[in-house]
Amino acid sequence: FGGKKLKGILERLNAGEVVVGDGGYVLQLERRGYVKAGHWTPEAAVEHPEAVRQLHREFLRAGANVLQTFTFYCSEDKLEISGNVTNITGAQINEAACDLAREVANEGDGLVAGGVSQTPCYLNSQNETEVKAIFKKQMDDFLKKDIDFFMAEFFSYVEEAVWAVEVLKTSGKPVGATLCISPEGDMSGVPPGECAVRLVKAGADIVGVNCHLDPLTCIRTVKLMKEGLEKAGLKAHLMIQPLGFHTPECNHSGYLSLPEFPFALEARAMTRWDVHKYAREAYNAGIRYIGGCCGFETYHIRAISEELAAERGFLPPASEKHGLWGAGLQMHTKPWVRARARREYWENLLPASGRPTCPSMAKPDDE
Amino acid sequence: FGGKKLKGILERLNAGEVVVGDGGYVLQLERRGYVKAGHWTPEAAVEHPEAVRQLHREFLRAGANVLQTFTFYCSEDKLEISGNVTNITGAQINEAACDLAREVANEGDGLVAGGVSQTPCYLNSQNETEVKAIFKKQMDDFLKKDIDFFMAEFFSYVEEAVWAVEVLKTSGKPVGATLCISPEGDMSGVPPGECAVRLVKAGADIVGVNCHLDPLTCIRTVKLMKEGLEKAGLKAHLMIQPLGFHTPECNHSGYLSLPEFPFALEARAMTRWDVHKYAREAYNAGIRYIGGCCGFETYHIRAISEELAAERGFLPPASEKHGLWGAGLQMHTKPWVRARARREYWENLLPASGRPTCPSMAKPDDE
Amino acid sequence: FGGKKLKGILERLNAGEVVVGDGGYVLQLERRGYVKAGHWTPEAAVEHPEAVRQLHREFLRAGANVLQTFTFYCSEDKLEISGNVTNITGAQINEAACDLAREVANEGDGLVAGGVSQTPCYLNSQNETEVKAIFKKQMDDFLKKDIDFFMAEFFSYVEEAVWAVEVLKTSGKPVGATLCISPEGDMSGVPPGECAVRLVKAGADIVGVNCHLDPLTCIRTVKLMKEGLEKAGLKAHLMIQPLGFHTPECNHSGYLSLPEFPFALEARAMTRWDVHKYAREAYNAGIRYIGGCCGFETYHIRAISEELAAERGFLPPASEKHGLWGAGLQMHTKPWVRARARREYWENLLPASGRPTCPSMAKPDDE
Amino acid sequence: FGGKKLKGILERLNAGEVVVGDGGYVLQLERRGYVKAGHWTPEAAVEHPEAVRQLHREFLRAGANVLQTFTFYCSEDKLEISGNVTNITGAQINEAACDLAREVANEGDGLVAGGVSQTPCYLNSQNETEVKAIFKKQMDDFLKKDIDFFMAEFFSYVEEAVWAVEVLKTSGKPVGATLCISPEGDMSGVPPGECAVRLVKAGADIVGVNCHLDPLTCIRTVKLMKEGLEKAGLKAHLMIQPLGFHTPECNHSGYLSLPEFPFALEARAMTRWDVHKYAREAYNAGIRYIGGCCGFETYHIRAISEELAAERGFLPPASEKHGLWGAGLQMHTKPWVRARARREYWENLLPASGRPTCPSMAKPDDE
């Protein structure tokens, strides 16, 4: 893979390639027993590296071009507040996480993105110096290790994201930035178009959204970002890493306001076929860095890779264990299951929930 | 753990202990990219041992007392028919799977169960000699390795299960046997009570059901088995490993007949709170070997362990990363999410599917 | 119509004719403002004869062969308890109701059935003499007027229904008897088959079920009645007047136990197409007296008449204002509505509730 | 009632009184067997006056202050196109309808509104002279009879409604005008605020919306009309007559685009409790003429009257047969039904559809 590795994230995007992102680590590792819900901190990178390594490896096999370091909420202030991690420092986690991502990325054609996310400090103080110092510290941890670019993600306020970008740009590495916002804009009401403009002006090479809302809503938000950039005469690559859940009734604050968050989201989970539609629509919207966030499991990432196989020119390793559009079912013992081995069947299926006493839509808590 | 390991499966059950089983390997490894749907064969034990090892480890951490070898459908006749595995023998898979289960079981208080399942040979020929030869061959693979007991599972016909038990009993090890049947009985119409009697008479130490139907339906079936045994004056331990999906509309042939099988079952997935109810009801029904089959993920097994923590006297390792009944949410940033950190909230929630254009019940294909 | 009127109810049924019954008066007149829910008494026959006359007339136009007198719960003991009627006697209501039914029946080919229903007296005393005296009094009211036959309906206990039949048979007129029971039997656990046998032995010429459960469930109950009669070597005509609501989750005590009863049943209402299926299945089950109870509106009765038009040899007057299977939509202004003017469209439609925050099934209060 | 009748519609509205409108005639009479779906013409006024009279009377008893003449689609061009009426002239229908409304209105405190609706001529020609001639002809029919004011309703294009108002104003009588539009505006894209301004400038005394969308959506539209009038410095009374169906997924063209229109709308029907919420919200929005259109049955109109009883100072006659908020259930035989005799129960109930294989939202045909 050595030759390919020469191609960095911007080379790929500049060349018009589709970059498949990875999926959601935090929720998936919660379900696997390694992350504590409510705290959501990434100490597993130190405590249970084999679990993190395995999930990285799954995403890589599923076709991801980028592995994000498992460093969500890994700023010192967040770790301290959460109280979940007492005997490990943020630096230890950050460094271990970089090593894990690098190790697995090198098993294939993978890039490593050092991930930085919103801080409690910003919410409490809005003090630019303090917040930037936190990002600087985390960046320095990453720079001790071999990462390819930075990703500032999960920001509710564009202002904090701009500060993150400004710090990360000092590294000389490419910087991506995604906000967890709705089409209405960030939490102070800055519309997506203006958010994108501010991020690009701050130095972001790639902008987009992640988390909080379902794929089609996130695509709408990224489209608004694109329009904003075009109006401002700016250029940047677009990326998207939405939820793997159906959230049609969500408002501005996203799925946190759903009564089902975070322990009863199962019925909202997307099928692989939902992901096919999402990947196609994201591609059609001009987005070229396409991944997932919370709720995106390995097979969802594979579905992105399979939907865009023609555009990318190849299928991922994990497709060896997956007949396209259900083709593997031709081997099933029951005739009626064999009859499902075709694209039209799965594209048109309206899956039942098996829960007749439950509603199909909830009332968000922020209404 | 050495001292504890002296206690075998029957010692534990005879002592009245709750034995927590593991979850479903095949569907989960399909989603992780290592098993091919339609074929459902376990070549990953040889091809990707790290992936199988990791899932074993998760189940162990979640409180499972037993790890089943990842040998589903691993009879030579099935492997040949499926055509998915050409360069690996069944013996290789069986032996590798035993080693993996043993390795991880030894990391904790785990027993290893060698798993044997229904064969195409039975469906085609119903020839006792041929079918028994297949079971004998697989048993011999296992006996080269260090397993604690045998588990004959996923049998639609009690006759075939009886043959499996008869073969496995020759090993001198304890034998469990579970059928994938409904309360109406096996596929030839033998009622659950009589199925249980036949299995116990054939030598099974543990009997019950697995797969095909949701937890509450499976409990009903095991209750019928229990009644049958009591009427016949027989004794055996009871076990259950149901689906992790809601299947209220299923008939005799179970979830294979649902239009959503196997690629759109997401909306039917049980929450951890559904599992709490299941574990309690199974316990109340007198079942002491309680696990899961397809759809049971790591956190579902942890939920069994947490519901029955008082009865077992301990919480599993993975509960370090899980506040009971949502307690971890007390740390959440949003006040309305913190308000969900209580048992009553999650016990009474009726989760929405986020899919208003989908029905809540399907029409099974076998109607 | 004079010539046709010579044919009484038994002549018609003996000749193999389909007899279309009328629909539900009480719920419909509640919605029109003339019956008080909770009391459910028929004083409107005296207070607002024009409203009762109009509903009779609609059912007749919709193809009903029988008009039941609007005398539900019109025994003196019930009227007294309900406290809703203070200045009118039961006799006055009964007589006014007979006149109204007769007047409208004479506008077409209609028979008048004098209706008698369960009494509070039975529930309180189970005293045969007292209960029979009440039926006798009501019967005498009817016999002052020109009615064609008697209908004992809405009995939860077959014992009380038998007493009613025994009294009504003394009139010399034909007697029908319907129970509001489930396939499990009456409220004392007498199975439907035995209920039917007892009623026929008491003298009922027509037996069946009415109210409390949806059409397909009621058909199952009538089938059990039929089997019971056949086993006993008895013969009787079968009739059915089910709810016009979907009640899939109901138990023994029927729709009274649904949380939606009686003021939020709208979403459960059957479409005319549901009625087509019902009418066909009832006919196929050998039932020849086919009508409806609570929830059956005028257009539902017309749907019975239209489904069985070939068997009866004619369409009812109200079909002048109804294109069969939506044919009238060929005139609609929107092209997509015109595209619905065909049978296949309406037969296969799965109608949405427009209520995404509501469940599709409730938990009955008698569980 | 003579004294009260001196108060015309404008006197009432000018005095700040709540005016309760009537419900939907066309759909209700279709279900009663007197109107042909697809044609939707009002020949029943001549053919079956007793049926029209009865529905007028029900609405009056339910508290309606206004009875609209049953003259929907009764322009000569529409009657000719529909082909449903061959031996009766439009003039005959219009005159008969006026007599029926007058006769019943005189039984209580009712006003008669002569109703005029959109014409095929407008859609085909947009010729102002021709369209106005049609309205003039219909107006002249009404002026031969004793009507209190005019109502131009069910207009998709404000231009045609303006022409209707201009014609009707020549009569010297008050004129109301309602459009069947969404918050997005009329079919040519004129926003609701501007629609209202144009109608008032044309001479309308009362403006608002009717039909096509559910109550809460219609309230939003009327609020936009109100804002438009306020911005323009104009004054007019506001009215609303929405659908009695839940249509959350509808777009601009309203419920005609729902797959359930017009023969499978049952599951969408509003309960009386839905109407309570609607009446309160409409009142709070400053609307004082509050009624219903298609799907509004007698008991829905009574619910408006009951919700606004304090504001109006009286309950309608039909409330004699209705315990407020379910109070009548205190008489019910089952204890669990008696427990429903309270406001909180009905206000919070989420009614189930009893249709687990059906979705809760449809895909409109105009998407």
From TrEMBL, chains A, B, C, D:
Cofactor mode of binding and number, as noted: Binds 1 zinc ion per subunit.
Leader sequence residues: none
Subunit structure: Homotetramer.
Coiled coil regions, renumbered to chain: none
Pfam families for the chain: S-methyl_trans
Residue ranges crossing the lipid bilayer per the database entry: none
Molecular-function annotations in GO: betaine-homocysteine S-methyltransferase activity; zinc ion binding
InterPro entries the record matches: BHMT, BHMT-like, HCY_dom, HCY_dom_sf
Gene this chain is encoded by: LOC115426499
Keyword Methyltransferase: yes
Any Gene Ontology CC annotation: cytosol
Name this protein carries in UniProt: Betaine--homocysteine S-methyltransferase 1-like
